[in-house]
Specification:
single chain; 143 residues; alpha/beta; Rossmann fold; 5-stranded parallel β-sheet; 5 helices; 7 strands; 41% helix; 23% strand; globular; Universal stress protein; Universal_stress_UspA; Rossmann-like_a/b/a_fold; UspA
Length: 143
């Protein structure tokens, strides 16, 4: 029986469809839903430079974090009558999705078939493929 569904969102239309699917599945199973947005860390840091905010898991750009929280609130508002938790994490998307599913005890993961990276460019299934390979639990990929 499904009790906790983790839905990864990134603001793309596909991830919004995934959120709606997760909501519908939660309604059928009386599960709770966690919406997860993963912020990717900068790819390159100068040699010898340690970014305390990055290490602590706090985004350096408060506007970016505010925009992500608005997105999570907006998506959650479209999921009435479902218990929704909203989480923002920093890391590589696929690895962070799997790690958060483990940490939260989610027994089902829902992701979009393709999404947007931090630069707004399309990722063609690389995240969903990696999540499927490493999740160790059912994963639904929404097109």
């Amino acid at each position: 029986m499904i009790q906790h569904i983790l839905v990864a969102i990134d603001g793309s239309d596909t991830s919004r469809k995934a959120a709606r699917f997760g909501h519908d599945l939660a309604q059928q199973t009386r599960a709770r839903v966690t919406l997860l947005f993963v912020l990717e860390p900068p790819r390159v840091l100068p040699l010898g430079f340690m970014d305390a905010e990055l290490i602590s898991g706090v985004p350096r750009d408060p506007e970016q974090l505010a925009a992500v929280r608005r997105l999570l609130d907006e998506v959650a508002a479209d999921l009435p009558s479902t218990q929704v938790e909203k989480v923002v994490e920093i890391g590589r998307p696929a690895d962070t999705i799997v790690a958060m599913a483990d940490k939260l005890g989610a027994d089902h993961i829902v992701v979009g078939a393709r999404g947007l990276n931090a630069g707004g460019k399309w990722l063609l299934g690389s995240v969903s493929d990696r999540v499927i390979q490493h999740a160790g639990r059912p994963v639904t990929v929404v097109h």
